[in-house]
Amino acid sequence: MAFAAQFAGVYLNFSPEDAASRSRKLEAFLADGMDAQMGWDGYGKLAAVAIQPYDIEATDANNAVVSVAFQSGPRRMMLSVPVYYSGDDAGRRFVVAGRPAILPAPGPADLPQVAAPESDDAATAELKPQLEGFFKEYASGNAAGLERYVAAGKSLPSFGGAFTFSQLKEIVVPVGGATREIQAVVVWAVPSGEAPPTPTATDPATVGGTLEQAYRLTVEKQGDKWFVADIRGAGRVVG
């Protein structure tokens, strides 16, 4: 699949100015006697990014059709590439075995609705200030400050100042015991980078932005306070 993705990176990017260079690069992928431009007439332009292997359909021990996903402008599409594999006895080599085909990418899957869990309002009220303190230190990289919010015996890495905590927008705390799996939506302040000599408020590049992120946390109640034992990405939309 990696071979087909590398081929797609060359095949899907062309312009008249780069025709000769593209032809030379394609030679590394094509069988003897194949059209050096693989059906392109030398006119027009195409640019593809975000090229990734998507699927493979084996027709026998040596032949397969590999699907590669890519983005061209606002469109997400697929490239179907017929590939021949020589096998162990012939050096485990690959070659494009025929003309590829560009296809529309499948649309997004339908996401079924999931009932929200029963919320524990009392635990939510207790957790909110603790989580606000946790995320502030989690962003800043203050190890001593972060330790105050992490469960005993646990250690968590931090962003080390890459972001700044802006807001704890939402918490979902299901009913349970002293250890809970909760979800939280956090708003990070994103730095704008190095400001130009004369920044203006109307230039988005000079103004820091915000980014909402959803997290799943394991929290433990020790004494009368909640502490974070683990943090990872949320699996589904919170709420």
Task: Describe what is shown at a glance.
By secondary structure, the protein is α+β, with helices and mostly antiparallel strands. The longest helix has 20 residues.
Show unreliable segments.
none
Helix percentage? 10-25%
Total count of helical runs of at least 4 residues = 4
Order of helices and strands: HHEEEEEHHEEEE
Strand content: 25-35%
Rg from Cα: 26 Å
The averaged pLDDT comes out at 89
Outline the fold blueprint:
Blueprint (H helix, E strand, L loop, with lengths): L1 H10 L7 H8 L22 E10 L4 E10 L2 E11 L8 E3 L4 E4 L16 H20 L2 H5 L16 E9 L6 E12 L18 E14 L2 E9 L6
Antiparallel strand pairs: 1-2, 2-3, 3-4, 3-5, 6-7, 7-8, 8-9
Task: Report what the structure shows.
It is a single chain. The chain is of the alpha+beta class and 239 residues long. Helix content is 18%, strand content 34%. The chain has 4 helices and 9 strands, in the order ααβββββααββββ. Strands 1, 2, 3, 4 and 5 form a 5-stranded antiparallel β-sheet that branches. The longest helix has 20 residues, at 121-140. The relative contact order is 0.10.
